[in-house]
Amino acid sequence: MKGICLGLLLLLPLAGLGADTLSPGEFARQIHAEINAIRGRNGLPELIWRDDLAGLALRHSQNMGKQDFFNHVDPEGLQVSQRLRKHLPELLVAGVGENLYFIENSRLVFDPREIALGWLNSTGHKANILSQDFTHEGIAVHLEGNRLYTTQVLALPILKRISALPPAFSAGRSYALEFEYVSVEPREGFNCQLSIPDPNTRVQIDLLTYTLGSMPLSIEWKSENRLILPLEFKYGKGRYSLQLGWDGYYYQDMLEFRAD
């Protein structure tokens, strides 16, 4: 029995499979190679492997196997975006997606190519694989008895937080957080701003320029891919959020703070 999942669970008859003996990590990397070969044939850049996304994928594959379910929503009611915020909060992504695959085989013989092609032959999974909105991925498999659970997590990461967050943020104080720049986009034109509690507050930039409800942040580059962001919670108590983007376009609510 095998199944693929992108919102819907599909169960299909098992086809004949064959593969060399691989460790779970090697097996996942083979799927990754197959995915990038598919993208290459479609004129798309390769997805970059991230171990932290693979770790998130492994957590879900293991959870499905041990708790005997096959779904994007886990028993806690969490989908992939929510699991990322819970288990990988330091990675700031502009988008995340997930493909699942399930095979049951009494001979314990599985083929990475069969999984990649299974996704390719399913409209929703194919859309994820060929999406230009994702630049990175992590894949993991878990074998539970004769059942193989595969999870692919695709994402568009921008920053990875290096600094630990303080226990609390205080209104009127300033903080500095260090990040790693992990986007594939060139850092030229990269901008950050901080939304403030009152969206109607006027923030003066210079004599002629102001913004409403957000303040630009000055980026201090420590190296090619390390930066410091100064955060000033000077607009009172409430919710602030980090916005990241290029050339004036921002992804909203990348990291939220509450100042008390």
Low-confidence spans: pLDDT under 50, at least 5 residues?
A: 6-19
Shape assignment: elongated
Number of helices: 5
Approximately what portion of the residues adopt beta-strand conformation? 35-45%
| Structural class by sheet pairing and helices | alpha+beta
Number of DSSP-assigned strands: 15
Radius of gyration: 21 Å
Which features would summarize this protein structure in a list?
260 residues, Pathogenesis-related Protein p14a, Immunoglobulin-like, four-stranded antiparallel sheet, 15 strands, 23% helix, elongated
Question: What would you say this structure looks like, in words?
Answer:
23% of the residues lie in helices and 38% in strands. With 260 residues, the protein is of the alpha+beta class. The protein folds into two domains: 24-158, CAP (Pathogenesis-related Protein p14a, 3-Layer(aba) Sandwich), CATH 3.40.33.10; 162-259, Immunoglobulin-like, CATH 2.60.40.10. Strands 1, 2, 3, 4, 5, 6, 7, 12 and 13 form a nine-stranded mixed β-sheet that branches. Strands 11-8-14-15 form a four-stranded antiparallel β-sheet, with no helix packed on it. Helix 1 crosses helix 4. The termini are far apart. 30% of the residues are buried. Residues 6-19 have low confidence and may be disordered.
